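In response to reviewer comment 3 from the previous cycle, which asked for concrete evidence that the modeling workflow produces usable outputs, we include below a single protein chain processed end to end. The sequence was submitted unchanged, and the resulting C-alpha cells are shown without manual editing.
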Amino acid sequence: MKKYISYIYVILSAVCWGFIGFSNRLLTGAGVSLGNRVFIRNFGTLLVLTVVFGLFHRQVFRIRWKHLPIFLGSGLISILLLSIVYFKCQTMCSLSVAAVLLYLAPSFVVIFSAVLWKTPLTKRKVIALVVSLLGCVMVSDVLGGDTTASWTGIGLGVLSGLCYASYTVFAHYGLARYESYTMIYWTFLVAGLGSIFFTDFKTLPLAFSGTQGIVGTCGVVIVATVLPYIFYTKGLEGVESGRASIIGVFITANKVKGIRCALLDNPMSARLTREHNDTNMMALGAAVTGEMLALEIVDVWLDTAFSGVERHQRRIDKMMAYEHD
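The workflow returned the following C-alpha cells.
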C-alpha cells in the first residue's frame, strides 16, 4: 500500500469518528441509557461485521488462541472502556470539550511509540501535535465559550484519549500477526460480548421506537464505528512502514541454487512460508522490524515444519524446476 493512501485512510477514519458525538446525543435524547448506548455501539458493530465478514471474508474468524490477549486488550480497553468513559464524558462536558480531550490521543500515541518501539520524537512530530491540538480547540468553539465541563468530566475525557490511543498499541502487535480485518473483528467480538453486562434489555427498545433513536443507532454503529475502525486499521498497515532495506537480500538469496528465501515481517507469514513453501532461509529488516517481533518471527519459522501436502510439494517442484532451465 502506498503511504499516502494510508494517510487518507486515517483521515477518513477521523472524519467518520467525528459523528459519534452527534449520534450519541440523538440516542441520549431518545431516552437510551449509558449502558444501552455502549451495547448498541459495540454489539451492533459486532453483528454488522459478523454478517459482512461471514459473506465476504471468512478467514477473519480464525486466530491462534495464544494471541487472544491482544484482542482482549483492544476490545476491553480500546473499545469497551472508551465507549463508557467517552459517552459519560459527553454528558458531563460540552461536545466541544469532550472532542478536544479525546484528541489528546495522538500525543499518547507518540509517547507510546517512543517508549515501546523507540520511535524518534522529532521536532516535526511535536509541531504536528501542537498544530492538531490547536486545530481541535479552534474548530470545536472552545475559545468561543462552549466550555461546559466538570473536573470529573475532564478526567473522563483524558481517559478516553488514552483508551483511543491504546488501540494503536494493540493494533501494532495484532497487525504483525493478522490482516487488518481480523484485528477489527476480534476486537469488536470482545467488546460486543463485554457490553452485554452493561445492558438493560427492558429499556433497550427505546432506541428503535422513533426516528431519532433509529438514526442515532445507525450513526453510532455504521458511520461512527464500523467505517472509522476499518479505515484506521487499514491505514495502520502502511503508516511508518518500509521494506526496501531487505528486498536486496531477498532477491540475491533466491538467485543461489537450492535457496528458497522468504521476506518476512510477521509471524503469520513465517508460518505459512514454512508450511506451504518449505522455505529454508528468511530475510528480516533490522530498521523496520523490532527486536521482540523479529525474535517471534524467527521462533515461529524455526518451529514450523513443511506440511507435506501434495499440492504444496507440486508448487515447490515447479519453483525449483526453474533452476534447471
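The CA atoms of residues 84 and 161 lie 12 Å apart. We consider this sufficient to address the reviewer's concern, and the full set will be provided in the supplementary archive.
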